[in-house]
Write a structure and sequence with these properties.
single chain, globular, about 15% strand, six-stranded parallel β-sheet, alpha/beta, 5 helices
């Protein structure tokens, strides 16, 4: 049976590259997109060119409850779930003193809270040997101009990865983060 991976933010540059790489490695790929339907269709076509099924799911990962819907749609369209790649990201780039609460909440919702919701929603469907991967950034550890909200959200994301890695290890589920270096 062909394994299935769910990739959030699969229609952007990094997400598309992840989707294509996973299709080349033998996965059927479900992925989310938000703004650009044409880009999503292009990603789906590239996955299918590699002989694998694709499922496109329009979703705003910053909205509470969306992750559960995305997992459910993946299961409905592709029948199973073996891995999750949390790649969707967004954020407000402003100096810390110019951030408003809505900017911080938006960024944390898309970049950190959605990862926790994805892991929680996917967990009942993941078997031993499954994996959950979060895409982070150097801003989690380094100070970059205007990157306050995104950097804090990526630091929170990495903390969630550590906690989930320990919690899910007894079930044989790997949880890791990938960051540019």
């Amino acid at each position: 049976m062909t394994p299935v991976v769910l990739v959030t933010g699969g229609s952007g540059d990094i997400g598309r590259a992840i989707c294509i790489d996973l299709a080349e490695r033998g996965y059927d790929v479900a992925f989310t997109w938000f703004r650009d339907r044409d880009a999503a269709d292009e990603t789906a076509a590239l996955i299918e060119e590699h002989g694998h099924r694709s499922a496109t799911i329009r979703a705003h990962l910053g909205e509470a409850g969306t992750a559960a819907r995305v997992v459910e749609e993946t299961l409905q369209q592709l029948g199973r779930l073996d891995a999750v790649v949390a790649n969707a990201a967004s954020g407000v780039i402003r100096p810390a003193t110019e951030l408003e609460p809505k900017h911080f909440d938006w960024t944390m919702g898309v970049n950190a809270r959605s990862f926790l919701e994805l892991a929680r929603s996917a967990r009942p469907h993941l078997e031993e040997g499954s994996a959950i991967v979060a895409i982070s950034s150097l801003g989690s550890e380094r100070v970059l101009p205007g990157y306050t909200a995104v950097g804090a959200s990526k630091a929170a994301l990495e903390a969630l990865v550590r906690y989930l890695a320990v919690e899910l290890a007894p079930a044989g589920i790997r949880v890791n983060a990938v960051s540019a270096g």
